[in-house]
Amino acid sequence: MERRMRGNSHVRCEWGEKPEIISKAYLSILNLVQESILQLVTADEEANGNLFMVGDVKQSIYRFRLAEPNLFLSKYLRFQEREDSGYKIDLAKNFRSRKEVLDGTNFIFKQIMGAVVGEIEYDESAELVKGASYPEETSYPINLILVNQKNTEKEDGDKSQVDNEEYDAKDLEQSVLEARVIAKQVTELLENHHEVYDPKTKSYRPIRYKDMVILLRSMTWAPQIMEELKQFNIPTYANLTTGYFESTEVNITMSLLKVIDNPYQDIPLASIMRSPIMGLNEEELSRIRIANKQGSFYDAVQAFLYEKGNQEEALYDKIRPFFDMLQNWRTQARQGEVSALIWKLYRDTHFYDFVGGLPGGNQRQANLRALYDRARQYEATSFRGLFRFLRFIERMRDRGNDLGAARALTEQEDVIRIMTIHSSKGLEFPVVFLAGIGRNFNTMDLKKSFLLDKDLGVATNYIHVKNRISYPALAQIAFKKKKKMELLAEEMRVLYVALTRAKEKLVLVGSVKDIEKSKEKWRQMTSHNNWLLDEFDRASANSYLDWIGPALVRHQKNTPLHSENFYSFPSIAEHPSSWNIHILSTENVLELQHDQEQEDNEWLKTVTAGKKIDKESPFKQQLKETFTWKYSYLDSTVFRSKQSVSELKRQGEKQDEEGGKELLKKENKPLWNRPRFLQEKKLTPAEKGTAMHMVMQHINLKEMITAKYIERLVEEMVTKELLTKEQGEVIEASAIVSFFESEIGKRMRNADKVVREIPFNIAYSASQIYKDWSGNDESVLVQGIIDVYFEDEKGSVLLDYKTDTITGKYKEGFIEAKPVLLKRYRQQIDLYTDALEKILKRKIDEKYLFFLDGGNSLKMDS
Q: Rounded distance, CA 277 to CA 286, Å?
């Protein structure tokens, strides 16, 4: 692209005519090619050009992407010093962090960052200046926590047998130690109800997990830190692309699948028997092995079950069920899908439920679900079978491929995020933990047999072909020295970015092999009378701690790092930065969790023995209130908040002695169609009633209403699909004619005003609707449809016609049915009357029911 622009002047002119070009994050992304392109498209010279550059060279941390901070630095140093250069505006204020974070960062970098080692002079113009308006009533010193990994020496006479439950300090990695330190700090912040300042509301609020972040130079330690924080029930999130197959629960499940595929594999079988699935200890495994010392471990198990089952019943009962199920699993593995087998294993062994109860149970269960999902995805291809699935996983791991842990949590939830310093650039957090400050820098690029440099070219080892030897050439040594200085400058800027991510509290965590030797080395720096430490000492650093330690030892308040004869120059020693230095031994760190584990083991023994634990949880009352809590509006969950008038009428009907009054649940519709001979069914009484009401609604009151008229009307309604054919067949024209020949029917036809099918919705108090309501009163929405309302010279009339069966049901006919019908429809008519009176805002004079079966009318008394 650069060549094309150089050869096309019209393109350069077109772009150069633009009013301005703004390059955001200039330092982070700009390289020589991009610089050349920008120079070609900008207008005029630097002094009068249209290029606006923004950035901070101290935060240029993308040299591995070929970013070139010296491009910006050269402009920064020459602008305003020459007439032909650009104009420089220093934006010195920091609006993110508290004064303590800024002072601490300034104190360190004034001593370690220089033009030779660091590529920039950390002078007054480079210092951070407070711009954020935080309250100053509370101090937030920067914490430095160092773990001394040197083991305490014991006299020979004091040596004792180490208990199996204790941790061996030599086997613990730095990541585990530092993770425990961070876990302790997080726990203290939450238990002490530490508050963070919210600039939006200008007030303090309790700290949450999402306010904290753990920064690492790389994500190598992230899986171990996450696993360790799980033991403290601290939720974490990290965007990992590895660590899935290393998780304990996935390893155990894979071992079980391997045993199902081939039980003659000793290591998977032993791991399953030792795992929580079977729960055997080392002694029990050895007793099984004694049954057959020569063959495979599976042969030993079979021999034990056959020969020693009667002698060791407890151990026999412990392993027999598993090996009975093993045969069924092997059969299913040959006949079914791998995914179905995996889910069956979760159910049969209860392993899925078990890991859910462990620390970080949600994450562990998510990993197991992910294994099931990946098995389904595998089977979506043309491959099948457990053997091929296991080989597929093995080949993936042999190639070094892995999968990221299943994401049970996201970074949007209340979790502590673990990320690299590069990922954190541009972000800010109230509390920042910078871990691994004692880890050595990654210098693998300096150890290659050949080196590349944009200025110097290429350098390789000198190879003496005749003598068949190779050694570093002089050019390569020069390359390596230059590359080392660039690496140190980059690491210095990375450290700067990490420290400036903190808004309020900054915690530095590191490990040292021998703290006394380290302090002795650092104390040598107190004799320097300049702010900037010697170039040799700074260039000899192998870790962040090699810069931080010598800088902090010169502050007068950092007494844990001082010797008895401490002296430092006042301008340095009296710097306003505030520090808290904590030095912990490995034993101290182990006790952070060992005490709790010891207490847990004691509780487990007590519970196993069936005894009561003489200790109450601080959450006892809270749990009691939670589990005994009852909803204050329980009636509201039983009774419906919306009812129809017809349903209220049905609930109020008299039931026989063997009947219940509760509502019947609707049957679920079948998911398949019934046979055709069963699909043809008679209409229910309710469906017949609906059809009759539909016809009554569409009758033209001005027509001569005869049976033939009703039949024509029904045919027309069927044609227009207002009625189905089946509904049309059940319409009794004679019953409708008898209504209009009755006195009430004639009054309706001759009325001055007739309104049919009046819908309404009205709210009543629950105690009015439900007789057995006992809770706080609230509203119930009642809905219904009034058949007819008309007005004539005698007054206003509410009319409702019914299709109840009367003929043949009552021996004495309507005379016997009358009191029953009055009671049945009393509440319904009362509700209709109340609703209609509220709608019309006038009193209803008469209320009638007309029963189409028999042609009888019934006047409802007020």
A: 18
Per-residue model confidence as pLDDT tens digits over 598-622? 777 777 778 778 888 777 777 888 8
**Between the CA of residue 260 and those of 49, 338, 341, 380, 510, what are the distances in Å?**
74, 11, 10, 22, 45
Minimum mean pLDDT range among 114-118, 205-209, 237-241: 237-241
- What's the token pair of residue 541? 């650093």
Give the span between the Cα atoms of 68 and 70, in whole angstroms.
5
Per the CB < 8 A criterion, the answer to whether 781 and 816 are in contact is no
Task: Tell whether the torsion through CA atoms of 552, 556, 557 and 561 is positive or negative.
Answer: positive
In the numeric block, the tokens 């009401």 are attached to 693
User: d(Cα 823, Cα 858) in Å, to the nearest integer?
Assistant: 12
* DSSP codes joined into one string, 22-38: EETTHHHH--HHHHHHH
Q: Would you say the pTM of this structure is higher than 0.70?
A: no
Pairing of strands 93-94, 129-130: parallel
Q: How many helices (H) and strands (E) does the chain have?
A: 35, 22
Any idea what the Cα angle at residue 759 is, between residues 756 and 764, rounded to 5°? 135
Phi and psi for 132 in degrees, rounded to 5?
Answer: -85, 145
Q: DSSP 3-state assignment of 450? A: strand
Packed helices 266-274 and 248-261: angle between N→C axes, nearest 10 degrees: 130
Q: How far apart are CA 639 and CA 766, in angstroms?
A: 9
Smallest Cα–Cα separation from 552: which of 110, 123, 58, 181?
110
DSSP 8-state code for residue 404: B
Give bridge partners of residue 859 from the DSSP assignment: 848
Compute φ and ψ for 557, nearest 5 degrees.
-90, -5
